[in-house]
Each structure stands twice: as C-alpha cells, then as structure tokens.
Amino acid sequence: DENASMGGGNTVPYNKLLSFFGRANYSFKDTYLFTAIVRADGSSNFAKGNRWGIFPSVSAGWIVSNERWMDSTRDWLNFFKIRGSWGQNGNCNIDNFQYTGVITLDGSYDFSYNQISPSVAAYPSNIANSKLSWETSEQLAIGFDSRFFRSRMGVIFDWYRKDTKDWLVNPPQMGIMGANASSINGGAVRNAGVELSVTWFDHIKDFSYNVGVNGSYNKNNVLYINNADGIIHGEAKILSENVRNEDGFQAKPGKPIGYFLGITSEGIFQNQAQIDEYNANGYAFMNGYDQARPGDVIWIDQNADGKYDKLDCVEIGNPHPDFTIGFNFGFEWKGLDFSISGSGAFGQKVMQSYRQFALQELESYTNNFVNRLWTGEGSTNKFPRFSHGSHNNFKCNGYNSDIWAQDADYLKIRNITLGYDLKKVFKNLPLQKLRVFLTGQNLFTFTGYDGMDPEVGYGAGYSWASGIDIGYYPSPKVYMAGISIKF
C-alpha cells in the first residue's frame, strides 16, 4: 500500500507537476466579452486519488461606452467597462512525501540521557496523512475600468471576495508523537474588500507628468478550522522567552488569521493610594505572587475570578492592515526626468517579541526602551517600573500581554529617481539617448512604531503568521547611480 510505505536514506528532493488547460473567448461587437477557462493540475505531493484538481473560471465584460446611447458622453467619458469574474486556483506548495511515512537515517541520534553517546539510528520523520488534497482558492470579483477627459484620467474599481478552502497548513504536534506533523487541509479563510485606483496623465507644452494613487480595504476572517478543537495554535515561546506553554497567536474561526492574544492592561499604578483603592474594591493582583507597588502594571481580570490565567487571554491585536495605499508621481521636461513612489499600511499591530526577550534576566537592555519605563508618578501610564526580567510586570504570570502590541501604521517612500538625457546637451553623439540617473530606495519611513521596521512578517514554519517582530533586519536604504544608453 503506497500510503503505508516507508524507505530509508535521504529524501529525494523533487516533485512533479503536470497541467492541462483550455480557454474559450467570445466577443460580440467588441462590446460583450466572455471568457471561460478550465485547467487540470496533477501533483506528486498528494497520494493517488488526490493528485488531480480541476479549477474552472469564467468572466464577462460589458463595454458600456460602445453603446450608441452613450454617444452624448464621449466628450468626457472615453471608455467604461463593467466586468465580473469567478474562478478557482489550486495550491500544492507543501513538502514532498507528506502523504506517506518517511524514515530518516541519522548518524548522530542520541539515546542517552546526557547526550554524549551518538548512535546510528532510523526514525520516522513525519506522520503520514494520506488524505491530503489540493488547497483551492475561489474568488468572486466585480468592478469597472474607465477613462475620462481624452483618456487623461483613469479610474479602476474592484470588489472581491476570496475564499481559501482546504487550507494547507502545518498544525502543531505534541512531542510524545515522536515525529513531525504532516500538513493537513486545515480549514477555510476569507479575504474580502475593495480596491480603487486613480491615475492622471497630461502634458503642458514640453512638460509631461503623471500622478497615480491607489488604495484598498481588506477584511480577513477564518471561516472554520478542520481539527479537534477548531483552532490552529501558534508556537508557544515566540512572543516571550519564559511564557507558559500557551500560544500567543492563533487561527480561530471568527478571528483574523494569526491574531494575537494575551492578557490586557489598563495602565500603571501611579501611587500607593491608587493601589489601596484597587485592593479595597476586591480586585486581585498578580495571582497572589507579589504585592503591588507604584510603577506596577494594572492587569485586567476578564472573568473576575480572582486570578490571571488563560481564561483572561483575549484578542490584543490584528496583524493585518485595514487599509493599504500606494502613490506615484513623475515628470519629464527637456531631458530631465523625475519619479517618486511610495506605499503605506494602516490599522495593523506588531508584537515586539525581541523587546520581551531583551528584558529577560541576563539579556541586553536597550537604552531607548529602558528610558521610557516608569520612574515616578506621572512619568508614564504605559510601561512599568524597571524590574527583574521574570517579574510579572513584563508578562502577567507568564502570559503574553498587550504591552507589546504596538500600532504599526506606516508610510514609506519606496523609490526616488532623478535622471537627465545628456543627448540634449551633446547633440552630435552617435546615440539616440545617453541618460544618467540617481536612484534611492527605502529612503524614508514615517511611522509611530519604535521598532526597527513596522513592515514585518514572520515565517518560521508559520506561513499564515505575520506582524511578529523578532528583530528582523530592516529594509536597507539603497543608493544607485547609473547610465542608460540607447543606440
């Protein structure tokens, strides 16, 4: 049986993909447009019976501006097209041979308690999942394309809804299983939103210019998770070094994928009178591990049971932006050219994992952060007093907290280029064009985020996680000079 087979030696690092597709187009009077596509993809990453996926798509368009009854608009509306589409795409991007058990040979496997007696051993490297199948993304989109004022102005609008079904994901695996988990078809995720783009092209005598802006709004939501508890848990010790064995990010139905969870705070005790009032109202503090002092965090006991545990963990941040924008501007004038472009994202949060690790005992304390800690009444209501790294101020009883979830809105200048065509000066050169230029990339970032870069993902085996800052190297500034020659 293929699904029960195991082999020794190194895993052969290959896979095969075979695809067929067919396409049909129909156009009536260059006004009514129809397209249908069907593709069949086969992948060796799945067991027999699950290797093939069929993915259809259809689209239709209506060029309204071609209709005779639109003649009266031609002096200001040059083109207007309404379009809609529905389609499916497949994804098979997983490691090889996960549908079958694989044996790994290791010349340094250690059976001893002190790990000083390595032996040659063979062990199962993964638990087979013969039911693995294609992940399918299904997207519905409706929008329009338009051009105005002798095609100088362009407006494009899209509404979309994309459902990713049979999501291929690696779930966490208990250590007692003795092998890594294979991918599963773990559930469904929805992204829905709108996109708008506006452009303008024009010239005034020798001066030509272009301007473009675009923006989008996206809502991310997990629809369901196909496992026992309906949750895919992130790794436990990512957001804090000594955190309890509880995950700080999850994929859970009704929540954005990879959302952060932890215990929330409501400020800092500024003086002893505030602490006495807090205690008089019967609130618990630190689960009985410590007595409150001025400068300590005021944690929120969500269920009012007198202790802080995972039942008090709530959503403390969404790593996905609500809005993204982009812009560009450029001009040409008598051989001189200039362009600038940028982008931004707004509404997302980033968890500052590296700051939590830096505040553990025997680690490196960064001056720019320590200087923002509480030093006396009124100094801050966000960060606590300086204390030992294991103190509950930095991780309430070992759980993640919202102290480390920071707004990460940003606007970046991605590219600035200035050039000049020397042919305008040296007209006798045997060239059509001799352009010299200077370019700068990632020159400016405008953000309130105090980490190294607000634009962070994560990865590390969790392709669905993002917004976890473990000290990634920021986007570098790049300066370039060059020459472009056209003969």
Contiguous helical run count = 3
Radius of gyration (Å): 29 Å
Helix content: under 10%
Shape: globular
The overall pLDDT average reads 85
Query: Could you tell me how far the N terminus lies from the C terminus, measured between alpha carbons in angstroms?
Result: 65 Å
Strand order of the largest sheet: 1-2-3-4-8-9-13-14-21-22-25-26-28
Question: What percentage of the residues does DSSP assign to strands (E)?
Answer: over 45%
Q: Which segments are poorly predicted (pLDDT under 50) over 5 or more consecutive residues?
A: 1-9
The secondary-structure class comes to mainly beta
Instruction: Tell me the total number of β-strands.
Output: 28
Characterize the biggest β-sheet.
Answer: 13 strands, antiparallel
Write the layout of secondary structure elements.
Elements: E1 17-28, E2 32-43, E3 52-63, E4 77-91, E5 103-110, E6 118-124, E7 126-127, E8 135-148, E9 153-165, E10 168-169, E11 180-181, E12 184-185, E13 187-204, E14 207-225, E15 232-233, E16 249-251, E17 259-262, E18 265-268, H1 272-280, E19 297-299, E20 314-317, E21 323-333, E22 336-346, E23 349-352, H2 353-358, H3 367-370, E24 405-407, E25 410-421, E26 433-447, E27 468-469, E28 478-486
Parallel strand pairs: 7-11, 23-27
Antiparallel strand pairs: 1-2, 2-3, 3-4, 4-8, 5-6, 8-9, 9-13, 10-12, 13-14, 14-21, 15-16, 16-17, 17-20, 18-19, 21-22, 22-25, 23-24, 25-26, 26-28
Description:
The chain is mainly β. The chain is 4% helix and 46% strand. It is built from 3 helices and 28 strands. It has helices at residues 272-280, 353-358, 367-370, and strands at residues 17-28, 32-43, 52-63, 77-91, 103-110, 118-124, 126-127, 135-148, 153-165, 168-169, 180-181, 184-185, 187-204, 207-225, 232-233, 249-251, 259-262, 265-268, 297-299, 314-317, 323-333, 336-346, 349-352, 405-407, 410-421, 433-447, 468-469, 478-486. The protein has a 13-stranded antiparallel sheet with strand order 1-2-3-4-8-9-13-14-21-22-25-26-28, with no helix packed on it. It has a 4-stranded antiparallel sheet with strand order 15-16-17-20, with no helix packed on it. The protein has a 3-stranded mixed sheet with strand order 24-23-27. β8 and β9 form a beta hairpin. The longest helix has 9 residues, at 272-280.
